[in-house]
Each structure stands twice: as C-alpha cells, then as structure tokens.
Amino acid sequence: MNAPILRTDARQIQGLTPRLQRAVRLLQLSSQDFVQEIRDSMVTNPFLELEEAGPESTATAVHDPSLAEALPIAELNALTPANDATMDTLPSADADMAFERDSWQAGPGSISGSGSGDSDISAMELVAADVDLRQHLRSQINMLPLGERDHALACTIIESLDDDGYLRTGLDELAELAALSPAVDGCEMSTALKLVQSLEPAGVAARSVAECLLLQLPQIEDAEERALAERIVAQHLAQLAQRDIAGIAKALGETAARVAAACDRIRHLDPRPGWRYGAENLNYVTPDVIVRKVRGTWAAALNHAVIPRVKLNQMYASLFQQHRGGGHGEMAAHLQDARWTVRNVQQRFSTILSVAQAILRRQHRFLDVGPLAMKPLGLREIADEVGIHESTVCRVTNNKYMATPVGVFELKYFFSRGMNTASGGSTSPTAVRGVIQGIIESEDPKMPLSDSQIARLLLRQGLTVARRTVTKYRQLLKVEPVERRRRAA
Fold first, then answer.
1. Partner of 443 at 20 to 30 A CA spacing, among 321, 342, 373, 482?
2. First vs last Cα of the chain: how many Å apart?
3. Is the pLDDT of residue 37 over 90?
C-alpha cells in the first residue's frame, strides 16, 4: 500500500507584483482616463498635491529624488527601459502659460483690467450662450397668442422631443403627461403637434424621416418639382436612399432628368433638424505626442497638456517620517502609494515618448510623402529598440495619439503586417489603401471601376490583392460601390 509523501520543489515562476500590475493598468489608460485616475488619487491620498505653476515645472515634479529606489530594477526592465534621460524632454507649461496670459492682457480687444472705464466685463461674458432646441422652440411659442391650455400642450410636445428634433413618444402618452382638466383628447394633441411642426427649424417634431422631409418640402419654390418630390418621399423613400433614379422614374412615369433633379433637391434637406441647436456632444482627442519638423528632421515631444501636475507633499512626508511609529500603517501605505503614483507618471510618459520616437524614425517618410510611403511595422521591432516587452508596446500604442502636420493618428495606426509584392518585397496595407484611393479618384466618373477591375490594376503595379480585400479597403475609405458611383454620375 502506497503511503502519502510530502515533497518540496523549488521553481521559478514569473509573476507581476501588485504594484507592477497597477503600473501596467495605468500605462494602458487613455490620457483622459489617466488624468482622472491621478485626480482620484489626489482626493484620497494626503501625500499628493497639485504642482503649482512656477519655476519648478512638471518635469521637476516627476523627478523627485526620493523616488530613485521606488521601483526595483527587474520590474523597471519589464515595463520600460531604465533610462530616465528621456524625461529631460518633458516640457514646462510655464512659458506657454505666461505667453498666453501676457498676450491676452496686452491684446487690443482686452476689456477687463484695461482701466479704460468702469466696466469690469470679462471676455467670456461676451461669448454667446448655446441655445438648445427646446429653448429655441419655447421662445417662438411664447410669442404666439395662445391660451394657457394650448400653450401647455405645445410645451409638453417640445419637452418630449429628442435632441435630433424627432417626436418618438405617442400623442396618447403625452396627453396623459399633460394632466390637464378636463382631459385632453386626440384632436387637441394633433392641433398642438401641427402648431409645433410649424415652428423653425422646418421638420421639427416629425415622427419619421418621411414626415420630416415632407415638412421641409414647402421650401421648394417650383410647384411641379415640389409635387414630384412629395411623391418620391411618400412612395419611394427606400429607392431614394439607394439612389435608384431609373427605378423611381419608371414607377412614376417621369423622365430620369426630372427625377434626378428632384432627388438632388431632397438630399439638400436636413433629416436631423434638431442637431443645428445646442452644444454638440463631441469626443475630442488630446494628443499625447506632438511631432514637428526641426531643422529638416522630424522630432517628437510630449504634450505638456496631458501630463498631470502632481507631486509628493514633502512637508507631510517629512512630518510623517519624524513621527512614524506603531498604529500608522494606513498612513505609511498612503505615503508609499503616493511615491508610486508620481513614479508611474514618470514611467508612463517616458515610455510613450520612447515608443513614439522609435515609430517616427521608421515612418518619417509617411509625413513627407503620404500613405504610399508607409512601411510594414511590427510591435517586436519597436520593443527590441526601446528595450521593453512587446505587450508593453501594445498597451502604449492603444488610446495614445500623435499630432502631426498631416493629422492626428493613434500610435497603433503606424503598425501593420507586410503584404508581399510581385517583386519579392513587402508593402503596408496603408500604402495599398492609398493606391486604391488614387485609382478611384482618377477613374472616369461615368465609367467607375469595380472592385475586380481595381484588383487587376493593382496586379499590374505588382500588388497581389484579392477582390474581397479591395472591397474591405474601399469600405474603410468610405467609398460607395461601383453601382452607386455610376448612378451618382
């Protein structure tokens, strides 16, 4: 009978410490999320404070000498090269802030602080406020001679509109929401709807795209063209979306020229009238790296606007070190976390800058020539040059952006697998897309090229690309299929 045996084995297992796990997580965050993470840490950690604008800039804040041994060398090598010299390029925002402040105060349009009068109005108070759709409609309703009941019903409809100007709530439900006495009937709600639909912008309070377009058709001055456009919208809206001019003309018994003119007039109408008003909900991209040409050479520098101005509160840290003792384990953890947070800021931007510079050295001709000069590039090439792991390069290139004179690009935009050419070389898919775009732009509008024809033209240029690959690249370029391009011509 076998007896149980206890045995001890010594093994080496690679793992991530909790601190390194946090550093990796912070590294893969976008700039906005990273700044928010640092701000949250400043709220909960008394040893972190905001760096004041002054002679000591952000670069000084992240160069705290007390952090020299905060991160072990082995973990540093796993995350980023142990070379802090790149942090010398961290820009200071003080010069730019002083220049903007002085330029604003000295400008000819300056009002406040000029001493030229008693008015102390700031320039921001002169900026027009955004007026949303509901405010715009209520201002028109208030000018109409309406009774209290009609006014209340109209305002009920206005408040129920979506941001694009459509009414997607049923009139019966709105009648119940109005809660008027006596109860509101369907006829009153229909009258109130017609009243709101008569306001500007035309097409507001529509319940469908067809109704929105029909409400805007009175803008067409020619009666015959207006009548034809009304028939197209009411009966052939799907064919209009498909640009099927021949099919609409055959169904209506009209000439293709008249139908094409009416369809073109319809396309100039606004299917989302509510979007003209109010502040647009735009997601702005803040670049992490800015690229400029200096003395004929492309150079990358960090964008100081995305660097959190955070530093270790040395006074609190010194007081704690002098009076540390038993029962202060939580404060000791806060101090250590503060040191790691400031160190993570340094590591993050040092790594981003190193990766961006390595990318720029390989893809600089893209900035000079365009997409045709894009080279195949893999993560391993950048990882080997910078001295970090390939997975770290992947995290750095996600949600990090580079601003160049030709546009703002995500860092991972510059990476792609190579495609073999007939000559035995390789090219980037971005370059192939540029060739396809050039072919489509130079085609005869009356005889556009199909994806198969484009594939054959690419083959003549030494690029072996399948037809389905051409279709995928054309869709990425947001170019319509050959049938629609032919109809549009």
1. 373
2. 89
3. no
| 457 contacts 463 by C-beta, under 8 angstroms | no
- Which CATH number does 419-488 carry? 1.10.10.60
Q: Where are the domains of the chain?
A: 17-95+280-415, 133-276, 419-488
Identify the pLDDT of residue 292: 93
Between helix 18-27 and helix 329-369 the angle, nearest 10°, is 40
Q: Give 159-173 pLDDT, tens digit per residue.
A: 888 888 899 888 888
pLDDT digits (tens, 9 = 90+) for 301-312: 999 888 888 888
* 460 confidence band (pLDDT: 50, 70, 90): confident
